[in-house]
Amino acid sequence: MCRMFVMIGGSEAVSRARDSMIASLVNAAKKDPHGQALFGNAEISHKDGWGWVALHLDSKGAALHFGRSTISIYEDPSINAPRLVHLPPGGKAVLMIHARAASKGMPINVFSTHPVEAITSNGYRLFIIHNGTVDKEELLRILNIDAESTEAKIYNDTYFLAQYMAKKISKSIDLNIIREAVRLTKTALNIGVVLIKEQEAWVAAGSFYKARDDEVRRKYYKIYRGETQDLVIYSSSTLIDFYNPNIDIEWKELENGRFEIYRISGEKIDMVESGIIKI
Fold first, then answer.
1. What is the pLDDT of residues 135-194, one digit of tens each?
2. Domain total for the chain?
3. Kindly report the CA angle at 96 between 264 and 263, in degrees rounded to 5?
4. For helices 157-168 and 175-183, what crossing angle results, to 10°?
5. How far is CA 60 from CA 12, 63, 71, 94, 194, in A?
6. Which of 221-229's residues contact partners 24+ apart within 8 Å by CB, and which partners?
7. Confidence class of residue 102 from pLDDT cuts 50, 70 and 90?
8. 102 DSSP 8-state letter
9. Which of 239, 243, 256, 226 shows the shortest CA–CA distance to 9?
């Protein structure tokens, strides 16, 4: 399983909050009390690699930064490299970072490290970070991919989820596309999604999990949402409950099943959809 966060806002606001969020993520990846309570000592850390995507949009165009590493986020010195998430002033920005603990049976390699990427039929780039498990076997069947093929063995469930969503996307992300992903969920669909187009981006973030009236499970899978005038952050629970980032923001638990979708240009950020998905 995994820990992660998604930030959307003005470039300066994202830059001000990023270091504290990264520090909390690194600490949560190294020692996750929620993961330990739910899964035992095997999930006390999220050691199976990490990755990030940063997007900056202004009147001049777009700048994309993207990388993945199989080194644990708390052991990789590049997490502190200034180039990692350098955002010029002005414009709008999106930042997603993910620390991975691979689910049982899933490959551990750079191909399956998040963010995973897919290309839509229109040639747009789609990036996904994910905490939880979706039905890989069903995705392979839908995508008509041989379960014994090399592709099926070296990529994980989230990779095939990205390919599936990319096939569904035409010009934007909407709740119907998220609903299809929820239908394939085994444990949880805590996701951040970025669709990058020519002059704009679409971002989806939210949380669905099968709690089964289990409070320990809820504490692990719940997502927090924080918002200021020029910034919104979606964060895995451990970052906030145990390593509260030094940010002047009020955190609220996101309702289970709620997903929110934004359209972002260099001039403004609009929330275009927010809704609760149940199965």
1. 999 999 999 999 999 999 999 999 999 999 999 998 899 999 999 999 999 999 999 999
2. 1
3. 15
4. 140
5. 17, 10, 35, 16, 20
6. 221/131, 221/132, 221/187, 221/188, 221/190, 222/253, 222/254, 222/256, 223/190, 223/253, 223/254, 224/251, 224/252, 224/253, 224/254, 225/251, 225/252, 225/253, 225/254, 226/250, 226/251, 226/252, 228/9, 228/13
7. confident
8. P
9. 226
Q: Which residue has the tokens 């085994």?
A: 186
What pLDDT is recorded for position 87?
A: 83
Q: In whole angstroms, what is the distance from residue 253 CA to residue 106 CA? A: 29
Query: What value, to the nearest 5°, has the Cα angle with vertex 188 and ends 183 and 189?
Result: 65
- What CATH number does residue 19 fall under? 3.60.20.10
Q: Pairing state of beta strands 231-236 and 251-253?
A: unpaired
Percentage of the residues of the chain whose pLDDT score is greater than 90 = 79
Joined tokens for residue 83: 């180039």
230: domain range? Answer: 2-276
Say how far apart CA 172 and CA 165 lie, in whole Å.
11
